[in-house]
Design goal:
By secondary structure, the chain is an alpha+beta fold. The chain has 2 domains: 97 residues, Phosphorylase Kinase, domain 1, CATH 3.30.200.20; 122 residues, D-amino Acid Aminotransferase, Chain A, domain 1. It is built from 7 helices and 14 strands. A hairpin with a 3-residue loop joins strand 1 and strand 2. The longest helix has 23 residues. The structure holds uridine-5'-diphosphate. Uridine-5'-diphosphate binds next to strand 9, helix 2, strand 12 and strand 14.
Length: 255
């Protein structure tokens, strides 16, 4: 087993130095947190499933021309990624009222929005990820105007594509969060999609029953959290073998 040098440990993933220059390896954990770390737990098999779901979505997005950091999945819990400088902004796209939007404006969860809403949050746990405006992003130098235009247009394309993709498997894409990074390519600094896209970062509701198939089940202490994640993978046609879901081996190099 080859031990990798750890670069960073997040709430749901560990990032290791990659085997090639300008790459990193993301290891998907079963750890789950909510409410800025106040609630902590484990969702058995989540890492394996999110690794596969994120691989699937990143590949489909890449096929329609959305630049992403994804290179390839290495094994059940790891994927090889292009190393980027993460832009410290969480980009949330909403199609249906839910979560903090419902709370902030006193709206009922579940009403469709007349148009998609894009929101920005400053990625900073100590400050509880405060909501920010484009003005803050450019004034504080987190991204420039050109990058922000690119982020906005990518976020809307991702939303359109994923809304259709999930609708095809009977799931409503209520909202989701994405992150972007920058890297040098052909002497140009480019913005590309980074992090993961999974039921940890999306709200996914069954079209017919409105059943929640995402991390809200964990946040709200509902039953069937593991099963909900599995159901999303199953509908996408990528459910890893049940026997592998509990496989919790440490990071190892797969050539
Ligand atoms: N989200 C996320 N990470 C965060 C905050 C939000 O992945 O730190 C996702 C969340 O899963 C949902 C969307 O972004 O799909 C909108 O979340 P919201 O602002 O409603 O916040 P929440 O209710 O999750 O606190």
């Amino acid at each position: 087993m080859v031990r990798r040098r750890q670069l960073y440990e997040g709430k749901a993933k560990v990032i290791f130095e990659g085997p090639e220059p300008d790459t990193v390896v993301a290891y998907f954990k079963d750890d789950a947190t909510a409410f800025n770390n106040q609630k902590k737990g484990t969702i058995t098999g989540k890492g394996v499933i999110n690794n596969s779901i994120s691989e699937f979505l990143m590949m489909r997005l890449s096929e329609i021309g959305v630049p992403t950091h994804f290179i390839r999945r290495l094994n059940m819990r790891e994927q090889l990624l292009r190393k980027v400088e993460i832009i410290p902004v969480e980009v949330v796209v909403r199609n249906v009222v839910a979560g903090s939007l419902a709370k902030r404006f006193g709206l009922e969860e579940g009403s469709a929005l007349p148009r998609s809403i894009v929101e920005f949050y400053y990625k900073n746990d100590e400050l509880n990820d405060p909501m920010i405006l484009e003005e803050h992003i450019t004034a504080f130098g987190w991204a420039n105007h050109t990058e922000l235009d690119e982020i906005m247009s990518l976020a809307l394309r991702i939303n359109d594509f994923m809304s259709g993709l999930f609708r095809g498997i009977g799931i409503r894409l209520v909202d989701f969060k994405v992150e972007f990074g920058r890297l040098w390519e052909d002497d140009q600094l480019r913005v590309i999609l980074a992090d993961e896209i999974s039921p940890d970062s999306c709200r996914l509701w069954d079209v017919k029953t409105n059943e929640k198939l995402d991390k809200d089940r964990f946040r709200r202490d509902m039953e069937g959290v593991e099963e909900a994640y599995q159901e999303v993978a199953r509908r996408l046609g990528i459910l890893p073998e049940a026997a592998h879901l509990r496989e919790a081996v440490g990071p190892h190099l797969v050539e």
